[in-house]
């Protein structure tokens, strides 16, 4: 009978161990001391994309001169303009303006130049353009999947992941999927390796508006998910067998 107990205990131990997974390669930037960062020496500026919501405010020394270009004088942060699929906005007096693909600074300079013929000689309008709809989505094996608002118009993939609570121990750090939509509406998919320090040299290190970052589960998580139900069943069976064996032994005595 002692051997029966030993066999049952061993069986239960095997089932429980089968439900546990190991995690490897959880350290970011493992080769940080071996790479060159020359390619990362750039200042990133977000580009205006279709469906972006822009806020634009025109200021001149004479408030009456800028009034026709500010649809609502009671909106100190400017008026919202939706960029259409062709990258255009409809602006008061100036009409249709193509802003798609421009940085915020380029857009401000372009509008200021278009305004000058409508203003007094020597008047230099100050144009403030904001991108109020900038956001990215982080989901999958992170602690807090969410849509992340980007208030600074600049966010790296690491900042987005940190905002989502970082990867769980089950997240694949060497194969993170980035889904990006181009100006034409075409979708791109890129695989990023967070364990490789060369990530900071990647053109995908900084995220664009509406990017989706998906962290896949590693093999340990996938294995756990596939056997979680069967593990519960086998533990229940093993427990029942152990109870039955105890009863049989008691009766035999």
Write a compact overview of the structure shown.
The chain is α+β, with helices and mostly antiparallel strands. The chain is built from five helices and ten strands. The protein has a five-stranded mixed β-sheet, covered by helices on one side.
Spell out the blueprint of helices and strands.
Layout: H1 2-18, E1 53-59, H2 63-66, E2 79-82, E3 88-91, E4 95-98, H3 104-115, E5 126-131, E6 135-140, E7 146-149, H4 157-163, E8 176-181, E9 187-192, E10 212-215, H5 219-252
Parallel strand pairs: 6-10
Antiparallel strand pairs: 1-2, 1-5, 3-4, 6-7, 8-9, 8-10
Helix pairs in contact: 1-5
What does this structure look like?
By secondary structure, the protein is an alpha+beta fold. 29% of the residues lie in helices and 20% in strands. Helix 1 (2-18) runs antiparallel to helix 5. It is elongated. Mean pLDDT is 83; it is low at 15-24.
Beta-strand fraction estimate: 15-25%
Order of helices and strands: HEHEEEHEEEHEEEH
| Rg, Cα atoms, Å | 29 Å
How many DSSP helices? 5
What class, by secondary structure content?
A: alpha+beta
What is the spatial order of strands in the main beta sheet? 7-6-10-8-9
The residue ranges in which pLDDT falls below 50 over 5 or more consecutive positions are 15-24
Helical content stands at 25-40%
In round numbers, the mean pLDDT is 83
Number of strands: 10
């Amino acid at each position: 009978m002692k051997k029966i107990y030993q066999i049952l205990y061993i069986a239960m131990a095997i089932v429980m161990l089968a439900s546990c997974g190991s995690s490897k390669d959880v350290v970011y930037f493992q080769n940080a001391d071996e790479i060159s960062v020359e390619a990362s020496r750039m200042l990133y500026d977000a580009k205006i994309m279709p469906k972006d919501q822009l806020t634009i405010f025109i200021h001149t020394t004479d408030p009456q001169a800028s009034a026709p270009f500010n649809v609502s004088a009671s909106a100190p942060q400017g008026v919202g303009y939706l960029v259409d699929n062709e990258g255009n906005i409809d602006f008061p007096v100036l009409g249709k303006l193509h802003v798609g693909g421009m940085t915020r600074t380029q857009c401000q300079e372009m509008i200021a130049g278009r305004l000058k013929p409508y203003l007094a000689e020597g008047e230099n309008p100050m144009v403030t353009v904001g991108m109020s709809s900038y956001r990215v989505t982080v989901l999958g094996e992170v602690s807090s999947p969410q849509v992340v608002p980007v208030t600074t118009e600049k966010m790296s993939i690491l900042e987005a992941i940190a905002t989502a609570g970082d990867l769980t121990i089950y997240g694949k750090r060497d194969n993170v999927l980035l889904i990006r939509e181009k100006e034409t509406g075409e979708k791109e998919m890129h695989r990023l390796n967070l364990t490789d320090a060369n990530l900071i040299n990647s053109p995908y290190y900084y995220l664009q508006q509406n990017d989706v970052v998906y962290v896949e589960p590693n093999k340990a998580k996938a294995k756990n998910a596939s056997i979680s139900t069967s593990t519960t069943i086998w533990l229940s069976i093993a427990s029942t067998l152990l109870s039955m064996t105890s009863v049989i032994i008691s009766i035999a005595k």
